[in-house]
Amino acid sequence: MTTRAHRLVFLDVDGTLIDSRQLMPDSARAACLAAVEAGHTLMLCTGRTVPEVYPWLLRTGMSGIVAGGGGYVRVGDEVHSDVRMGRDSIEEVTSELDALGADWVWQSPDSLNPSPGFLRVLTASGSQGSWSAYARQVAPWVRQGLPLTSSKCTFTLPADHSVTVGGVIDSFRGRYHVIPGSMGPGGLTGELLPLGVDKGVGLLLATRVLGMAASDTVAVGDSENDLEMLEAAGTAVAMGNAREGVKAIADMVTAPVDEDGLAQAFQELGLI
Q1: Got the DSSP string for the chain?
Q2: Whole-number mean pLDDT of the chain?
Q3: What are the pLDDT digits (tens) for 158-168?
Q4: Taking CA 22 as the corner, what is the angle to CA 18 and CA 27, rounded to the nearest 5 degrees?
Q5: Predicted TM-score (pTM) above 0.85
Q6: 8 A C-beta contact, residue 12 and residue 45
Q7: Residues of the chain where predicted confidence (pLDDT) is lower than 70
């Protein structure tokens, strides 16, 4: 698969650009910069909201970002989408998550509103990798209480709870879009978004804004919140560390994030 045609490349963050230690492999950084030098356009496409994105990630040749799982789209300095839930929905969801004993964080482009235990869970990550860099990154945006509006909610269920993320998905079905989470120290983690919001929707909007065809897009990801992004893209790439369901729909599977997988994919696709 070798071509020098202009491609619009959408890159997931956790498990694709960075590893469990919150580090970006040198090979991935070099591949991104080389792809831009070769004339391709790169964008982040992440479940994280803007305050959670390390600024150095945007300095690896990114022309914009699809964030918040697809509800926020920024190309250059212009914001083209910023979908949020209102206070009534936030209170409804919080009440139900509290009843399950879950920790949660409401995430938006201008604040993060966590339950008392959420950041503690992230920083006490043990064998799952250090999240202290994340805690430092988001500290200026952390606010107490519930926000008036929010892009999404990430929640973590107690490990010994009888309710699974699948059970939460069923309980919110038809009201909100809930998927297993890709971010966090592991365990029973999920992401809750407004209905109709996913990374595929964000990818297609950014593609239209940039005047590209969907067939000329490439998406790279590893987890459930990447499925719609991969399905919408012209070429879908799964990381070697991806979930089996993600690999099943991909056009190609590369090596894991910490084994130069992104750079290998760029080379095989002729992006560098």
Answers
A1: ----S--EEEE-SBTTTB-TTS---HHHHHHHHHHHHTT-EEEEE-SS-GGGS-HHHHTTTEEEEEEGGGTEEEETTEEEEE--B-HHHHHHHHHHHHHTT-EEEEE-SS-EEE-TTHHHHHH--GGG---HHHHHHHGGGB-SS--S-BSEEEEEE-TT-S--HHHHHHHHTTTEEEEE-SSSSSSEEEEEEETT--HHHHHHHHHHHTT--GGGEEEEE-SGGGHHHHHHSSEEEE-TTS-HHHHHH-SEE---GGGTHHHHHHHHTT--
A2: 91
A3: 777 777 888 88
A4: 40
A5: yes
A6: yes
A7: 1-4, 119, 121-130, 182-187
pLDDT tens, 19-35? Answer: 988 999 999 999 999 99
Give residue for tokens 């994030």.
257
Distances (CA, A) of 98 to 118, 155, 166, 226: 12, 10, 17, 27
Other CB atoms within 10 Å distance of the CB of residue 139 = 11
Amino acid identity for residue 24 in this structure: M
